[in-house]
Amino acid sequence: MIVTDCASCFAALQDSSAFKGMAVMDLSSLLHELLAGHNLKKIDRSITYHDPCHLAKGQGITAAPRKLLYRTCSDFREMPGADSCCGGAAFAFYNYNTSMGILDKKISAIKETGAEIVTTCCPSCIMQIRHGLLKNDLAASVAHPVEILAQSLELAP
Predict the structure, then answer these.
(1) 157 located within any domain
(2) What pLDDT shows up at residue 132?
(3) What are phi and psi of 62, to 5 degrees?
(4) Domain limits for position 75
(5) How many CA within 13 A on the CB side of residue 120?
(6) Quick check: is 21 in a domain?
(7) How far is the C-alpha of 99 from the C-alpha of 88, rounded, in Å?
(8) Distance CA 149, CA 39 (A)
(9) What is the CATH number of the domain that holds 32?
(10) Which of 28, 54, 88, 146 is least buried, going by the fewest C-beta atoms within 10 A?
(11) What is the rounded CA–CA span in Å between residue 98 and residue 91?
(12) Which of 59, 50, 58 has its CA nearest to residue 88?
């Protein structure tokens, strides 16, 4: 089995003929399963989640990251249009202006939640959303759900 914390890598591994016959699993899904039945300390921060296109639309994985977040934070806020693209990945490099228009919509949805932390399972989305938050002078931070789990387990600040 191959486990990855990156939505884009997950999609690439699933589609690669070099890995046919091997199971590929999202890290959030694996951790949710492994930690079933364990009580986790909830961090006291408001959190929202952005569905990466490669994970949600490409692989159909939307529930596991949220379940992990519900177990690790006391104030999960569902974002309107959470499954809408953030305009990131390679798209942002080749179509910057269009990408920024898409990102502006995502930032508006994040603002609507009032969340302190935006989480997502894709490094490209993390960079894109962080760019949008900085560009709009918003104080929210961006993290992978596994970083929130690490805080819950008191493995990270």
Answers:
(1) no
(2) 96
(3) -130, -30
(4) 2-152
(5) 30
(6) yes
(7) 7
(8) 12
(9) 3.40.50
(10) 146
(11) 9
(12) 50
Of residues 77, 83, 33, the one with CA closest to residue 59:
83
Which residues, in sequence order, are CB contacts of 42 under 8 Å at separation 6+?
71, 72, 73, 74, 152
Q: How many domains does the chain have?
A: 1
Predicted TM-score of the model (pTM): 0.92
Could you identify the residue written with the tokens 């789990």? 149
Per residue in 47-106, pLDDT (tens digit) is 999 999 989 998 899 999 999 999 999 999 999 999 999 998 767 778 889 999 999 999
User: Position of tokens 């080749």?
Assistant: 94
Q: Give the confidence band of 39 by pLDDT, cuts at 50, 70, 90.
A: confident
Q: Is the pLDDT of residue 34 over 80?
A: yes
Q: What is the pLDDT of residue 59?
A: 87
Tell me whether residue 109 is in a domain: yes
SS3 110: helix
The token duo for 95 is 């179509």
Q: Is-contact 10 59, C-beta < 8 A?
A: yes
Between 109 and 157, residue with greater pLDDT: 109
Which helix (H) or strand (E) is 150 found in, with range? helix 145-152
* Closest to 5 in 3D by CA, of 45, 61, 46, 47: 61
